[in-house]
Specification:
The chain is α/β, with parallel strands linked by helices and 331 residues long. The chain has 3 domains: 79 residues, Translation Initiation Factor IF3, CATH 3.30.110; 94 residues, UDP-n-acetylglucosamine1-carboxyvinyl-transferase, Chain, CATH 3.65.10; 81 residues, Dihydrodipicolinate Reductase, domain 2, CATH 3.30.360. It contains 8 helices and 16 strands. The strands form 4 sheets. The chain has a 4-stranded mixed β-sheet. The chain has a 4-stranded mixed β-sheet with strand order 5-6-8-7, covered by helices on one side. The chain is globular and about 55 Å long.
């Protein structure tokens, strides 16, 4: 049995989700202790429990301790099964974080998978659905991983109610090599909102020199958000930001653009958030990438990967950022 310290690193939900992913792929029974012990409300919340149960369902796994508030679970995975699945996270729990957990598992299935997921599409502390769809899944597709998603309805905090349909096909990925990003192709953005038109216009005006696509969202809770992309020949950098009550729209737009500029002015081939999300794939299939810094989520994912796969990573720091590489695992 693999023992995982849920309080390692950032000590949040990421270590739980990554442990579920690697447990399902390797078939190794896992005990995760101290789940979210560094959070004000430790233990499993609704969105974490949804990930636990969904992973168990697609692997016909066995669970112990899977309930709201639990700080320890045991998961024994079975065989990964493709097929049609429906998952309802409840309220505004993050759809992108659930898909982040399930997609690497389902590419090891011997059949196509179709998922219908309800919850939050654009919520704090998680990638926006536009970032996930137009950047993260695009990076995977370039390396032979066949997964796509369609947004049927946006979901904002607090009521959620978003609906996303995803398709994941069995895949034989290539190494995820991002050694350089190549020439710049275009910089653009996508804004979504169901707020007053004047608020939308103010946010757009705050972003300088970038073409913005607008979407009038159909969410049941009020919300606004922006995702920016810097596309290069061999990679894409991104940033996203959400509106908040009491925060001016102009501040949201400027913050998002400043984050993108920070990534672009570095030597990174992946932005900080793409790097931490790609760690599981690089550990499994090999690859190399450069980020301007090693985030706590990336460190956590490296820790989890090496609990299941032994030491697979080489991490090198320099004045230009951090380079992470792996030859991949033998499964």
């Amino acid at each position: 049995m693999i023992e995982v310290d849920g309080g390692y690193g950032e000590g949040g939900g990421q270590i739980l989700r990554s442990s579920l992913t690697f447990s399902a792929i390797t078939g190794k029974e896992t005990r995760i202790r101290g789940i979210r012990v560094k959070r004000p409300n430790p233990g499993l919340r609704a969105q974490h429990l949804a990930a636990v149960k969904a992973t168990s369902i697609i692997t016909s796994g066995r669970l112990e301790g899977a309930k709201i508030g639990s700080t320890e679970i045991i998961f024994k995975p079975g065989k990964i099964k493709g097929g049609r699945y429906e998952f309802d996270i409840g309220t505004a729990g993050s759809i992108t974080l659930l898909l982040q957990t399930l997609i690497p598992i389902l590419i090891f299935s011997n059949a196509e998978s179709y998922l219908e997921v309800r919850g939050g599409t654009d919520v704090k502390w998680s990638p926006s659905i536009d970032y996930f769809k137009m950047l993260f899944l695009e990076l995977l597709e370039r390396r032979g991983i066949r997964a796509r998603c369609e947004v049927i309805r946006r979901g904002y905090y607090p009521k959620g109610g978003g609906l996303v349909r995803a398709e994941v096909l069995p895949s034989v990925p290539r190494a995820l090599n991002f050694e350089d990003r190549g020439r710049e192709k275009r910089i653009w953005g996508r804004l979504h909102s169901n707020l007053h038109e004047e608020i939308t216009k103010r946010l757009i005006r705050s972003i300088e020199g970038i073409e913005i696509d607008e979407e009038r969202s159909n969410a049941i809770s009020p919300g606004i958000g922006i995702t920016l992309f810097a596309e290069y020949k061999r990679s894409t950098l991104g940033s996203c930001a959400l509106g908040e009550r009491g925060v001016r729209a102009e501040k949201v737009g400027r913050k998002c653009q400043e984050k993108l500029k920070e990534e672009m002015s570095s030597k990174a081939t992946l932005d900080v958030h793409a790097m931490d999300q790609l760690i599981p794939y690089i550990s499994l299939f090999g690859g190399v990438a450069k980020a301007r810094e090693l985030s706590r989520h990336a460190s956590t994912n490296i820790y989890v990967a090496e609990r299941f796969l032994e030491k697979v990573f080489k991490v090198e720091g320099s004045s230009e950022g951090v380079i992470i590489s792996s030859k991949g695992a033998r499964l």
